[in-house]
Specification:
2,3-Dihydroxybiphenyl 1,2-Dioxygenase, domain 1; 42% strand; alpha+beta; globular; 8-stranded mixed β-sheet; 273 residues
Length: 273
């Protein structure tokens, strides 16, 4: 049974706030995404993180010293090295990280990594829905001067989030309980089933569907906005990445899906071909 009261949630509860690349080669990964998406890479100081933590790098968009941060990147920590493939993970803001972990468990999900403080940043945990798709949750610390945010539809931002679910309808119900997401509308994809487009505070945020047979496990994936899809495809190939699908026309523009040179799965989207 859900433990939190949806009526008491803040407006930021359930908002995607970050994406993170865990990879086997941060130098190569930074060069690849800088070329393909246009991000710049900056090492982040992590006071109090300890010597055992690998360096953390920010992906930023824009010029100057105070640019909007889109996400981050790190090498695999020793305990995960060789156990996971390079991958992207999203972070969702929650009002109470510890309580949300309890709510995930109470509703059939799992806690993959117990809540932990990141000095100066907030408290986070790694959780999985009842079918095993992994996502991070975080309760950020309040800031006197919040960092700037990139416009939601600007080049370089995360334009869409997509869940290949164990069961699309069950996933929609689960995340609605956990994060307050609402069903915007269903899209009939014919033999591929129903695509559930969901919103946070009235804005379309992403979609979820029952995973097709070729997707081995339930998982989240993230679409980065680029200037034009064909030019981005050329940059992916020139940088050593692979295009797995596309370009495909979808409502609002074009998409491609691919892997970076280290094997991390990613997607691109643009309103221009």
């Amino acid at each position: 049974m859900l433990q939190t009261n949806p009526q008491s949630r803040s407006d930021t509860h359930g908002k995607f706030i970050w994406v993170e690349l865990m990879t086997s080669d941060t130098k190569a990964g930074g060069e690849f995404y800088s070329s393909v998406v246009g991000w710049k890479v900056k090492e982040m100081s992590m006071p109090g993180a300890g010597d055992s933590m690998p360096p953390y790098y920010l992906f930023e968009m824009g010029e100057g010293d105070n640019c909007p941060g889109i996400g981050g990147m790190m090498d695999f920590p020793p305990e995960l090295e060789g156990k996971l493939p390079p991958n992207w993970t999203g972070y969702v803001a929650v009002d109470d990280c510890d309580q949300m972990c309890k709510d995930f468990i109470a509703n059939g999900g799992r806690v993959q990594r117990d809540p932990e403080d990141i000095p100066g940043i907030g408290r986070f945990a790694v959780v999985a829905d009842p079918h095993g798709a992994v996502i991070c949750i975080m309760t950020p610390l309040p800031m006197d001067t919040p960092p700037p945010e990139l416009a939601w539809d600007a080049v370089g931002n995360v334009g869409w989030r997509e869940l290949y679910a164990g069961n699309g309808r069950e996933a929609m119900d689960f995340y609605g309980k956990m994060f307050g997401w609402t069903l915007d509308h269903d899209f009939d994809m014919g033999p591929m089933g129903t695509y559930h487009i969901f919103s946070h505070n009235g804005r379309q945020t992403g979609g979820m569907m029952t995973r097709p047979a070729e997707v081995p496990v339930p998982c989240w994936c993230y679409y980065f906005i680029v200037d034009a899809i064909d030019a981005a495809i050329d940059r992916v190939k020139a940088g050593g990445g692979q295009i797995l699908m596309g370009p495909m026309e979808v409502p609002g523009g074009w998409i491609v899906q691919g892997t970076d040179p280290q094997g991390a799965y990613f997607c691109l989207t643009s309103g221009k071909r």
